[in-house]
Amino acid sequence: MAKCSLCRRTACYVQRYSGLRLCGEHFLRHFERRVRRTVMSRGMLRRGLRVGVALSGGKDSTVLLHLLHGYAEKLELELVAVLVDEGITGYREVSRRRAHKVCSELGVELHVRSFRDTFGFTLDEAAHATRWKPCSVCSVLRRYLLNTAASELGCQRLATGHNLDDVAQSVLMNYLRGDVERLLRGSRGHGMVPRIKPLMEVPEKEVALYAMLSGLEVGFEECGYAGESFRSLVREVLLQLEEHTPGIRYGILRGWERLRGAVATEPRPLRACTKCGAPCSSEVCGACRMVEAVRRGLEGESP
Ligand code: SF4
What we know:
five-stranded parallel β-sheet; globular
């Protein structure tokens, strides 16, 4: 058995892209140091902020909440968790129970926003009525609910559990779709609660290992719709590329950041949606347009 690169203990993880072999204890320290460095070097947090944490009960957001909770006292952060219940049968109920449990253990307020209560339909119903890919409906309405909840709760940052794989997938998806505007701009905009992604420099596999070695109660179940998405295809391709060329996800992240730095774009000037008041770039926001289309579908009309 290979030894840890930093001590005499047996390694439990080989980090192919760096050549490091790490025992459990050194892996945990290494992981925490890397996330702390991401947060500090990118100026994600400062003393006294009220931070909304998008919590799903899955591994990424649970690890994120624990880490931010660890910084909370020193940085005098106020944490509130927000869970979006899309209404996905057999999936969200389980993770919702887990999210309640972790929040009550850490003493963090949990606010739940559901598609059913806000829009009058579940994601299952919307997907069935429109025949659209569930992820395309989910991503727009989920982002809307997270942003409006964070704004209503007075949050100055919205932290999400996106890891390195998620970020690299998004970059590649935007390239493949030729969506240069989104590629360069991301989701910045005046009037939106600024988003932070403290796990953006750690691979998904390492987040999972960190959760297991820390004894966190997390779920590894996947949304039943995940396999139908374009993202899932890109994910497979990226994993193959990483297997062939370790470190390629970091290459994608760094290249994207260099590109954004070279072609600096101003955050979009946003105005208020005439229907719901949320910040948007057109007269009616994407979420309101989507909700109207789903409602038409539910009434038997063409969405
Ligand atoms: Fe929503 Fe798609 Fe993610 Fe499921 S896989 S939670 S439908 S975005």
